[in-house]
Design goal:
By secondary structure, the chain is α+β, with helices and mostly antiparallel strands. It is built from 18 helices and 31 strands. The strands form 6 sheets. It has a 6-stranded antiparallel sheet with strand order 13-12-11-16-15-14, sandwiched between helices. A 5-stranded antiparallel sheet has the order 2-1-5-4-3. A hairpin with a 4-residue loop joins strand 20 and strand 21.
């Protein structure tokens, strides 16, 4: 079609003063009819209000035959000598005339949305893509104010504000937004370039823009952001359930309106992974979340198991080892949704909008742990292949965190079981002390440490109190703790003084380290230990420490303080001496032995913690067990960073009425008199039934001391829960059992003692040795 261009002149009062032949061709009005009339008489529609400057826009005039003619008009002001506006010159063309130039066609056919506005944000031109975005033809928008053509929402108000900024400042800008459009069923990401359009004088007469739909790039950035957030927010604890909850919290609602995480049952236990099932799959729900409060879409409650048929997305994902997507309208989707609705019909209305489901296996280190399911309801987009790639990557990261938590839980359970098997049992019933104890394994990610304690009965009604701490955490630490615990019990049987016992234990740790580590790093098996021996007859306590905190002592008057002692180096350092401290304790004193986890923490002051411990130990308590609980509650922080072992011992004393002592001259003729004295003492104690065995034991041990030992010789009987017979002499030579031959005159005495008593043994003393034997007494 031939393009017709019209021209006209209008004075300041709106009267037509000039009319071209092109104007006659477009409107049918000849010059003699148009000139002298007001321009408004020629319009079919009222013009929108304009500013005083030039403008370009749509105008509808009425043809001479009465039909409307849409035109695109450009108006330029005519200025007089004084600079005042005296009128306008108008040029016009049909609104539907094609662009005559290559540049015009390039604008119209551009692959991005392009538009031109005047300085007041009225539409002047739109290309084909812009019209598709707006959902209406160009004619419906030309001349209209932008805010009139879109909803009054934040993104559109922001867009209009940027248009005004460009018009007012004359500076171009880039504007990124996430908004919808009249013809789009969802929001899109837009990257918009806006720039001013100037006339020949440089005045801004309009604003042009090009908007690029950057939704794919935007969504890719969103997925990358989620993956980055996953690295920081998933796996913050080594707890399986908490880790799955973190996955759900990350994905709802940005990736899905509903997310569930189901695990195979073995993951939550200590079993080895079985083969992945190929038919029906039984999974346990450990976490789920929804954009709706209360998670109404869930067909399975937390902690329950669910059987997934082979066609279901979770079963397929586990079987195929990849992300499975199903959309509304597909047969498997309809079956899955029907099964969910039948399972939990109360949530049916919340599932009615479900249109896309993705199911992703949770695989870590070649092992399948469970499945993650995402459901979209309000989210308008179906899951695409890019979503599947993202979901698999995130599920892989999440699965590693879940597997780490599973492995930690399994190692923790194993270490705790090992440690509990090595810690002492049945500590009640000690003659010398009443004991109570607590052991709190660490809940930190470092794992269970090597804290331990023990109460070891010794000869002469004495008792050894032990507490120690092995460096490190986990199963190796627990195993080392077990070795040290057994070593201490073995050395205690030898009845070594505390400082000597620690010296032997230090050598053992050094040898263990050399064996286990090739002698490179002894400190890896380093440990601390406190060993104390209490004698209820003398009421004396002897203690030595290897790098371990000193025990606290609470006297009957209510005063409490740490016992002053030299701690010595930790075990495994080697070559350093250990010093023992000895003190007499009043009856009913309370000793508190503990590991450093009770008072030491990186955020705590040790001196203040010690003060809190001493105050807690003096608080009134109904029992020693109650005192244990009170101490832990008062001293420990809410989340201790290390294991804690606490051993409380209330001392008892054996009075003079329960101990009898005789000095024995080294004369064999006095053995009978000594035996008789012991028998008479048993009668005083009401233990006549033990007289026969006691006579034999006293006779044998005293005779051996006279024959093989050295003065001074002493006999002591102790009536406790057992009857204890002790014979001491000045010789350090220890006796031992041997098999007597047929013609031997001796060698059968100790064998007889061993057969008649419950247990027997010997211990070194500062002046020689003591041989002892215990008989069980009938309860009564």
């Amino acid at each position: 079609m031939e393009q017709v261009v019209a021209a006209a002149v209008i004075d300041a009062h709106g009267i037509v003063t000039g009319w071209s032949e092109g104007a006659r061709l477009l409107t049918g009005h000849p010059a003699e009819e148009a000139v002298g009339r007001t321009a408004a008489d020629l319009l079919a529609q009222e013009l929108p209000r304009r500013g005083g400057g030039g403008w370009t826009g749509p105008v509808v005039v009425r043809h001479r035959d009465g039909r409307p003619v849409p035109l695109v008009v450009t108006a330029c002001p005519v200025l007089g000598p004084d600079g005042r506006r005296t009128g306008y010159t108008l040029s016009a063309r049909r609104a539907d005339d094609g662009e005559p130039t290559l540049a015009g066609r390039a604008f119209q056919q551009a692959s991005m949305s392009m538009s031109v506005f005047d300085a007041q944000q009225h539409y002047l031109r739109l290309n084909e893509v812009a019209c598709k975005v707006m959902g209406v033809p160009e004619d419906a928008l030309l001349g209209r104010h932008f805010p009139e053509t879109v909803a009054d929402v934040g993104p559109h108000r922001g867009f209009n504000w940027h248009l005004r900024q460009v018009a007012e400042t004359g500076r171009p800008l880039r504007y990124e937004s996430f908004a919808g459009a009249p013809s789009l069923n969802r929001e899109h990401a837009w990257t918009t370039e806006m720039w001013p359009v100037r006339d020949a004088s440089g005045e801004v007469t309009g604003v042009a823009l090009a908007a690029f739909d950057s939704s794919e790039q935007y969504l890719a950035r969103q997925r990358l952001t989620l993956l980055n957030e996953a690295a920081a927010s998933i796996g913050t604890t080594l707890d399986v359930v908490r880790t799955t909850e973190e996955v759900v919290a990350l994905l709802v609602p940005r990736f899905a309106d509903f997310v569930s995480v189901d695990l195979l049952d073995w993951v939550l236990g200590a079993d080895e992974p079985p083969p992945v099932p190929t038919g029906e799959v039984v999974l346990r729900r450990v976490a789920h979340g929804s954009a709706h409060e209360g998670t109404p879409e869930a067909a399975v409650r937390l902690g329950e198991t669910d059987v997934h048929p082979p066609f279901s997305p979770p079963a397929r994902a586990l079987r195929e080892g990849r992300a499975v997507r199903i959309q509304a309208g597909e047969p498997d989707f309809m079956l899955w949704l029907a099964e969910r609705n039948a399972r939990a019909p109360e949530g049916h209305r919340f599932r009615s909008g479900v249109h896309s489901v993705i199911s992703v296996p949770l695989k870590a280190r070649g092992t399948t742990l469970g499945v993650l399911v995402g459901v979209r309801i309000a989210h308008p987009d179906d899951y695409e292949s890019d979503d599947a790639v993202f979901a698999e990557e995130l599920a892989s990261r999440a699965a590693v965190c879940i597997d780490n938590a599973r492995r930690f839980a399994r190692e923790r359970t194993t270490a705790l079981a090992l440690q509990n098997s090595l810690l002492p049992r049945g500590l009640s019933g000690q003659a010398a002390v009443e004991v109570a104890h607590r052991y709190l394994p660490s809940v930190s990610t470092a794992g269970i440490g090597g804290d331990w304690f023990d109460v070891i009965p010794l000869s002469g009604s004495r008792v050894a109190l032990v507490v120690g701490d092995v460096v490190g955490h986990g199963i190796p630490s627990s195993a080392t703790m077990g070795r040290l615990c057994m070593a201490v019990r073995t050395l205690a049987d030898v009845d070594l003084p505390p400082d000597e016992l620690l010296t032997h234990l230090d050598d053992l740790v050094t040898h263990l380290a050399a064996y286990d580590e090739g002698g490179e790093d002894v400190a890896e098996l380093g440990a601390t230990c406190l060993y104390a021996v209490y004698d209820p007859v003398s009421r004396r306590l002897t203690a030595a420490a290897a790098g371990h905190p000193a025990p606290a002592l609470v006297r009957p008057d209510g005063s409490a303080q740490l016992i002053g002692m030299t701690p010595g180096p930790p075990l495994g350092v080697g070559g350093m001496p250990f010093e023992a401290v000895e003190l007499e304790l009043p009856e009913e004193s309370v000793l508190a032995l503990f590991t450093d986890g009770l008072i030491e923490d990186r955020d705590r002051d040790v001196d203040r913690a010690v003060d809190e411990l001493c105050n807690a130990l003096t608080a009134p308590a109904a029992s020693l067990d109650a005192l244990c609980d009170g101490v832990l509650k008062a001293v420990l922080p809410e989340e201790p960073g290390d294991d804690v072992a606490l051993l409380l011992a209330r001392t008892r004393a054996l009075g003079a009425d329960r101990v009898a002592t005789w000095d024995v001259a080294p004369d064999p003729a006095l053995v009978a008199a000594t035996r008789q004295a012991a028998t008479e003492q048993l009668a005083v104690w009401g233990l006549g039934e033990a007289a026969f065995v006691t006579e034999l034991v006293v006779s044998e041990l005293v005779t051996n001391a006279i024959r093989y030992g050295a003065p001074p010789i002493q006999l002591r009987l102790i009536r406790d829960r057992n009857l204890i017979c002790e014979v001491s002499d000045g010789s350090s030579t220890s006796p031992h059992l041997r098999r007597a031959h047929a013609f031997d005159e001796g060698g059968r005495g100790l064998l007889l003692v061993a057969q008649l008593t419950q247990r027997w043994g010997s211990r070194q003393t500062g002046r020689g040795k003591t041989i002892w034997a215990e008989q069980a007494l009938e309860p009564g």
